[in-house]
Design goal:
The complex is a heterodimer of chains A (365) and B (230). By secondary structure, chain A is α/β, with parallel strands linked by helices. In chain A, 43% of the residues lie in helices and 18% in strands. Chain A folds into 2 domains: 189 residues, Thiamin diphosphate (ThDP)-binding fold, Pyr/PP domains (Rossmann fold, 3-Layer(aba) Sandwich); 115 residues, 3-Layer(aba) Sandwich (Rossmann fold). Chain B has 230 residues and is of the alpha/beta class. A 6-stranded parallel sheet of chain B has the order 4-3-5-6-10-9, sandwiched between helices. A two-stranded antiparallel ribbon of chain B has the order 1-2. In chain B, α3 packs across α4. The chains are: A alpha/beta (365), B alpha/beta (230).
Chain lengths: 365, 230
Amino acid sequence: MTEQTADLLKGNEALALAAIRYGCDGYFGYPITPQSEVLETLMAEAPWETTGMVVMQAESEPAAINMVYGGAACGRRVMTSSSGPGISLKQEGISYLAGAELPALIVNVMRGGPGLGTIQPSQADYFQAVKGGGHGDYRLIVLAPAGVQDMADFVSLAFDLAFAYRVPAMILADGAIGQMMEKVTLPPWRRRLTDAEIAERYPWAAVGKPASRSRNVLTSLELDQAVMERKSLALQERYARIEAAETRSEAYLTDDAEMLLVAFGSAARIYRKTVDLARQRGVRLGLLRPVTLWPFPTQAIARLVGQVTSVLVVELNAGQMVEDVRLAAGGRVPVEHYGRLGGVVFSPDEILEAALSQWNKTNRK
Amino acid sequence: MKRTSTDTIRREGRVVHRRTPLLTDAHMHYCPGCNHATVHRLVAEVLDEMGLQADAIGIGSVGCSVFIYNYIDIDWIQASHGRAPAVATAVKRLNPSRLVFTYQGDGDLAAIGTAETIHACNRGENIAIIYVNNSIYGMTGGQMAPTTPLGMRTSTTPQGRDARLHGYPLDICRLLRRLSGVGFMARRRVDTPRHIRTAKQAIREAFECSLAGRGTAVVEIMAECLTNKF
């Protein structure tokens, strides 16, 4: 268990190693491309022999998410990972986690869809992650990593936020980030919480009822509509607190920008280069990268909209986050979308062309 | 509800009935004649007699027994429909010293949860499964279950279950008992005092099996749904 300073790792591997170092109690997965290295790395590391972390290959995605539900209900730090088709199968369990107010980490390494789709990278699950893929009025805290370092760092961020608010969190990556190798500094080791610490920190957890307290029940069921409305409103109030305190975004050369690019995840990483290229051509482009997709950085975008003449939203999908950017812009400037689908990833030059063409269109008026 | 003098009944100085300490004061929502009330009491008595209140984590399911957490005074996790064995798997692996058991009906265990049931048993998870089989979907109003006998009339087989239309009744325990991970299996009923006593003994042995780490323990209780009888 020596400290590693830097290593060359795939995003999926970095995520798995970071989970062990964080003191994660359990991982429950099912193979699906392009994220199977998470389960494979954990099995190869055999953390049950060192930290005591449980790693299981479940019989299906519904079983895996319900194992997560069980582990979370006992106050443990548990997680699962999958890709689009598997995440769809987990939606019922995710809704139950939200309804029972259970903290957990779900990782989606996105691929192109719908259906079986393709195994190539995509950002087509934005709606599913951010707008609630399962049933009921609920939210997930959604973090969008833009590189391998983020895959390592977001494990602790996601767990910490999930436990602070008792809301499930999702890391919404994509096949490019899961598969590409980069230099990464793994997070420091933290030890797993003991049974006594869990019982003390999480008094709601089902760990066995001592005589000193009444029984703990983790459920999302309530038949009395008045009580159910009160519970639902309390959840919404918690979501409002998360929106106020936990919205994160990253700005690149936005201070003097006259046109704004908005992109998340791997797209945001690629288009930094576009910003540099555009500035060489005399167009002051800036980039805003939402780090939390929910809560969405509405205010950060609204502030920038006041200084630019147009906004271009670049996504590896048919236009999903663009809807939230348009809401933030409030009709003050044109907000266009540029996307590629089906696993095709565009180059910085291709986006430069799209940005310049929009720039010329906007400024010809 | 206040406890009444019926908590303890003595006859000729001897205690012949004692209120089960682990049953709560909540009014049970079950229909008159429902076997769930009996089986709940047996589970609570065994937990009490084995001194397991502080060490037990129960996994409820979806069906008539969904509110079991209102009646037995231990920590509970309410699982989604059919997934209780998967929930229990993680709870037990993360809390190896605890008694972890599910309480499921036949629609939950033998239809929508078939995969989770078979795989938990096949892995030999050290959990106990209390399987109450009344051969019908009770909570939703008496629809056919995989366990419904041929010829039986239900709200979705008003002419009687016909194998050509609906297939044959699924005796899932006959499948499960072939699996190497199953450490204990019993089929009991709760229709007479003598049968109730043997059912209680089976629940105790199931809990002992999972605590000893001898694999998955399954107790099937043959029950009746009087409300939904056609």
